[in-house]
Amino acid sequence: MVERCDRLMKDVRQREIAEAKERLARSRDIAEISNQRKQFLRDRIEEMTQEKNAEGDLRYVRNYLETTEAFINASVAQRPMTNRAWKMLKPKIVQEHDARAEEENWKQSQELLTKQKKDAVDTR
Question: What is the top-level taxon of the source organism (predicted)?
C-alpha cells in the first residue's frame, strides 16, 4: 500500500513538472509572438511616417499614430500580425490619426485667434 501511494505521488509530481514545462514553453511562445507583432507594427508605423502628402509634406505624425486606440489595442494582442490583419487595421489607425490631427489643428487655430485678439486689444 505504501509502495502504491509512493508511486502515485511520483506520478503526480511528474505530471506537475511536465505541466509546468508546458506552461513555460507556452509563455515563451506567447512572448515571442508578442515581440514579433510589436516589431511588425513598429515597422509599419515607420513606413507610414515616411509617407508624404500631395504638397510633399509628411502625411502622418508618429505620436498620433502610436497613441491611437487601434494601434494600442493591436500592440497588446497575443496573436501573430499578418499583412491581411494590417490591411484591416491601417484604415482604423489612419482615421483616428486624422481625427486627432484635425482636433490639434483646430486647437492651434483657436489659440492663434485668441492671441491675435489679445494683441489687437493690447495695441489700442
Answer: Eukaryota
- What crossing angle do the helices spanning 83-122 and 69-76 adopt, rounded to 10°? 140
CB 54 within 8 A of CB 43: no
Q: Around Cβ 77, how many Cβ atoms within 10 Å?
A: 15
Computed over its alpha carbons, how large is the radius of gyration of the chain?
27
The whole-angstrom separation of Cα 73 and Cα 68 is 9
SS3 52: strand
Closest to 64 (Cα-Cα) out of 98, 13, 28, 110: 98
The string of pLDDT tens digits covering residues 29-64 is 989 999 999 999 999 999 999 999 999 999 999 999
Length of the chain equals 124
Which three three-digit cell numbers place residue 122? 493690447
DSSP per-residue letters across 57-111: SB---HHHHHTSHHHHHHHH--S---HHHHHHHHHHHHHHHHHHHHHHHHHHHHH
Claim: this prediction has a pTM higher than 0.70: yes
